[in-house]
Amino acid sequence: MALPRPRTVVLVAGTALLTRRALRRRIARSPLWPLPALTKPVSGHSHRQPTTLRRLLITERVPVAEGVVQLRLEGTALPRWQPGAHLDLVLPSGLVRQYSLCGDPDAPGTYTVATRLVADGRGGSREVHERLQEGVEIEVRGPRNRFPLVEAEAYVFVAGGIGITPILPMLRSLAARGAKWRLLYGGRSRASMPFLDEIEKLGAEGGRVAVVAQDEAGHPDAVAALAGIAAGTAVYCCGPESLMDAVTAALPEGCTLHLERFSAATADAAGSGAFEVELHRSGRTVRVAAGQSVLAAVREELPHVSYSCEQGFCGTCQQRVLGGEIDHRDELLTDDERGDSMLICVSRCRSGRLVLDL
Fold first, then answer.
1. Three-class SS of residue 303?
2. Structural contact between residues 238 and 167, judged by C-beta atoms closer than 8 angstroms
3. Is the peptide bond before 92 cis (omega within 30 degrees of 0)?
4. Whether the Cβ atoms of residue 220 and residue 141 lie closer than 8 Å to each other
5. What are the tens digits of pLDDT across the range 256-302?
6. What does pLDDT average to over the chain?
7. Which of 18, 253, 312, 348 could cross-link to 330 by cystine, CB 3.0-4.6 Å?
8. CB proximity list for 327: less than 8 A, separation 6 or greater
9. How many CB atoms lie within 10 A of CB 26?
10. For residue 118, with 0-12 CB atoms within 10 Å meaning exposed, 13-18 middle and 19 or more buried, which class applies?
């Protein structure tokens, strides 16, 4: 057997050396490459079926109250929806915001949403009001429903301001079938309360609707609204966090409570302080400040981590948790998912340290 020529040996050895050096430089630039293979790659991959991205045309834009505009979006072969569903709007800037569908579920090819301008918000509502005009096309995802209308012997609804939007289709449905229902509807003023005329007409018979304008009568009384309701009543509430807290505290025994939030749930001081997050696969540890999200802290080290809504609604940032006690503040994950994963845009840590599969 002939031995390799010296020149061949030198060429092979040189190539191997250059390859090793290139690999070291690649790893130095991105220590996460290559990552160890996982038998079950959970992080960053939701178990839900992905929703299709559709492009719809805004065919109508009308004011329905002070600071509130209603948009009619039209397209073809749109999925049907049930009262309580919401739509993800992908705004021209790339921001993703969720708005409840408040139109007619039986209207083919049409979705209707309404949004209030929040002057000191994060920019989503301002973009809707300033940039979404008739004739503009917009991308949407959904609809999805985490606030469905369940079967019950009777219903009590408590809405605050723009929180009436997911409830309105429920009222129409219940009124059409002659179900037992009542509504407590509060707002800053009558002029600021969307769909007020239609709602008062729906509840004209039997005094079903109580309207409480803050500039006339102060804040709505959740305790009085829920006093004496029968067991088996389904209670629905959407509005400011303080209103939902009041309804939760006043819920009578034997009744079911259904809440719809437009932002992540708050929590008490426990679990709201700073803590550490170990990124298991990358071998790094980051510190999450008291006023900082896990997502923001992680992205300082891993800028390509996926995210979208930053409000705990869409599930894009779902990550597998290998250790630590999670403080869940999202409105999406199931009980099973909460056992070993979290949405890092809003949820935090109840212990001093979390370990993420990143």
1. coil
2. yes
3. no
4. no
5. 999 987 665 554 444 578 999 999 999 999 999 988 999 999 999 99
6. 85
7. 312
8. 267, 271, 272, 347, 348, 349, 350
9. 12
10. middle
